[in-house]
Amino acid sequence: MTPLEHLRAQIKKNLDERQVSQDAINDLLAKVQERGDDAKLTDDENKLFVAYRDTVKSLDKDRTELQATEKDMVANEEARQAAEDAQRRYGANGGSTAAVPARVTSEPEVYSRGGEHSFLHDALTRGTDPEAADRIARNQRMGLARMTAEGRASVGVAGFGALVVPQFLTADYAEVVRAGRPFLNTVTSRDLPDEGMTLNIPRGTTGTAVLQQTTENTAVASVTYDETTLAVPVCTYAGDQDVSRQAFDRGRNTDLIIMSDLAADYATRVNFDAINGTGTNNRHLGILNTTNGVTTVTFSGTAGQTNAQTLHSKVADAVQRVNSNRFMAPTVIFMHPRRWGWLTAAVDTTGRPLVVPNAQAPQNAIGVGRAAEYGQLVGVMLGIPVVTDASIPTTVSTSTISGATEDVVIVTRAPDVLIFEDSPGPNVVEFRETLAGSLSVKVVAWGYSAFTAGRYPTATAIVSGSSLTTPTF
């Protein structure tokens, strides 16, 4: 029985019990009517009447709450189904593998862009303002329901250190000029376990063996399976902002300015380290610094190897290396926007573009896509989606001639690259009283995540070299 079916069974049981009490009330009233117009309930009958009436009221109250929960669950299930449908549709078209967020739609949002009430101001004054406390409580309930629908671990609701931040304050990365998280939105996202600062992932190193039996009654092949543990640290990314009390009391859109900026930088920083991190000082070990199986394809700067056609062949080499070593196909190609722009500007000897926009059956093209696009699906090369991300470095140096001006192209299998998060953005704010003497408020936003491309390093191939210096147009 599903949770929704169980809930509906409870509602049916409630209605059945209510009907029993209501029938008892009707029987009592019928007996009184049979005794005549002046008849009244006896003391015993009156006690029974009050008991049945109270039971009906109690059941009605319980059923109202059950039905409200049922409404939320139905809305969440519909949103989840829509997200899965969108996920299947995007996957079928070669788009992002990131899940589409589900939203609770059973009641209007408490806080919204340009709305009447400020989330941070209500959080500060909820101890003295009952209406602010009620708005915070409703936002908590809706936020927790939304995170459950999205498959995220619920955030606690006790104290200022565990407020559920309204979604619009942390989701609008586009308004702040930062690179965002196209890479992390494309690889596989999983819930971060509730406890521990290290994730231990077992990796098989020696497999069993099955060989032919050379002759009857002789020993068969016997190889002991062996594995090693991949330890992935849980990293903390955080930031704070000191804000004057006047900004909360007298300002407008203070929430949007502060939380959007913190969320934008949080998203960009975690994404940047998932690509470039060194694994030191509590940083993620990024995909570019993952070794022990990641292969490199050199796109050198020798004569005749600086054009788009040659890069196309190098990307094809990277694809076949993943196929040959991982024994499964890569699913995405990541590159810097400038490299995709260079490809879309490339033409053949007759001046025809080599990357054509939205063509159904292009001839002699090396790719399909749009130049005016960033993040997520911008095009297709070799039948594989291309995603652009400005967090891919442009300061790589693979030769003493080129200097540190090179970018790279990442070919990988997104299901094998894992990001574990408690949420895709900071969803906790904390107010400390240490600045109360100066009428200042400290807003702290943080989150925990663990990233690894080391589960299957052979699922990744990197195209790099001196031919990937700053392109000219």
Q: Can you summarize this structure?
A:
It contains nine helices and 15 strands. With 473 residues, the chain is an alpha/beta fold. The protein has two domains: 1-88, Methane Monooxygenase Hydroxylase, Chain G, domain 1, CATH 1.20.58; 170-198 and 232-473, 2-Layer Sandwich (hypothetical protein PF0899 fold).
What do these coordinates show?
The chain is α/β, with parallel strands linked by helices and 473 residues long. It has two domains: 88 residues, Methane Monooxygenase Hydroxylase, Chain G, domain 1 (Up-down Bundle); 271 residues, 2-Layer Sandwich (hypothetical protein PF0899 fold). It contains nine helices and 15 strands. The strands form three sheets. Strands 5-15-11-6-10-9-8-7 form an eight-stranded mixed beta sheet, covered by helices on one side. Strands 1, 4, 12, 13 and 14 form a five-stranded mixed beta sheet that branches. It has a two-stranded antiparallel ribbon with strand order 2-3. Helix 1 runs antiparallel to helix 2 and helix 3 crosses helix 4. The longest helix is centred in the first third of the chain and has 50 residues. 33% of the residues are buried.
